[in-house]
Amino acid sequence: MFYRIFLYDIRKGLLTDYKKAGIVVAVCAAFCIQFIQMRLNANLDFSTASFGDVIFFGLSGMEKYKFAPDKPFVFPALWTLITVLPMFFVLYYPYYDLLGFGKNVLIQVKSRKVWWLSKCAWVTSYIITYFLIVYSVAFVISLFMGFSLSTEITKATYDMVVISSAEENINMGSNLVSFTGSMNLQLFVLPALTLITLGLLQMMISLVTSPIYSFLISSGMLISSAYYMNPFLIGNYCMVQRSNLILEDGMNFEVGVVILCGISLFSVLAGMIIFERREILSKALADE
Amino acid sequence: MEFCEEETMDIRGKFMEHTIELMNVTKTIHKKTVVDSVSLLLSSKEVTGLMGINGSGKTMLMRLITGLIRPSKGTVKIDGKELHKDISFPESCGLLLENPAFVESYSGYGNLELLTSVKGVATKEDIRNTILLVGLNPDDKKKYRKYSLGMKQRLGIAAAVVERPDIVILDEPTNSLDSDGVEMVKEVIKEQKKRGALVILACHDMLILRELSDIIYKIENGVIVGSEEAGKNL
After folding, report:
1. ipTM of the complex
2. Fewer CB within 10 Å: N-end or C-end of chain A?
3. What is the pTM (predicted TM-score) of this model?
4. pLDDT (0 to 100) of residue B11
């Protein structure tokens, strides 16, 4: 039965949402164009750039922020857009499904646990699909622009993104570790894992509040992650620039995986318990 | 005469296949009692009508029977199995509750195909026949978002009966329907009864309820204040 309801969720909650892929492509194309513009401004040859550079640029986030009177907090708009967008995309489907014929489906499934687990699998699939689109667009643009298709980060891009920030930030320069071009796990695993965790947490919170409040909490966690570098503000794992491969006191991959998997497991189990007791009411009563 | 194992005998001496038993069921939401000490015994091959004004508790009673909400007090038993204890939901139940909402970008057929894919018991032929039964065209490619209110309601009724469930719950099925649509609803309900389903029908129109129901319960403020059995007065 799980397989059937999961397929139903994929069809109803992912495949029918195909128009949103256009938004993802546009956002991804925008950061690729910004990357190209930055290289043009620095008079760097396109043939020396790589596919890994594009992803690094898009998911770099911002340097570790330390308050200083002459250093205002600059909001990482591009990174926030890339990370908040999937949180918004996965916000309403479970809620509206239950207000519509999802009620019939829940009764057919005859198990609230199976229904909830299917929604968790749906969130996971949705966010993986989101990142596959992001990576695919960056790959196609890299191919079109004549970049190397390697996932390695080039020194020139590292200097552009990290060293220029470090020079501007007197608090940070001394904390940098020696450059390594290979950050595949930080580029291709941690961002998706972080947003899957946040998506599951958001869905669980929406069971006890409402989708809009849960969205405010998840996007608040992402934005506060930009402000504070802390292992429990999980947005930090989604910022490649804050990896311990860049910063001495940066985020550790293994610790990140343990924390993210722990929060994911908690969200799935807590959601299962909450949904067992959840009343399926009309919109008006549910919103009260 | 031989009876199936699951058949039981009710207090009126009729043999039946399925029963719904509510015992002193009370539901309180946000400190307001919306269903108050309701006790009912419903059985297969009967249409039970629920009558009452908006907010009287009809829909809440239906939600309690489907397992979507839990009683604050009392028990709901389906075929002797207690909801939320022995089972989470009725074994076989089709429902139309409030405004049906389907996938906007799918056709009527596409929506029913998606809905029935979960249980996998309805064939393509069943889906086509049910769409025809409610007066829609299974070959119509028109998307749900372009459906009129009446067409949406017809599709909602089709969704409730397409898998030939043992229990059929219809909340205001004649909403948004023209006179042809109302006749269609009557035919659908009669067919469900004929095939042995237990039908619960909430409707504002007393004439329709009287025509279709074997027994009608009148609900006021969550309390059953009267009943009418096949033509007798409330």
Report:
1. 0.85
2. C
3. 0.89
4. 45
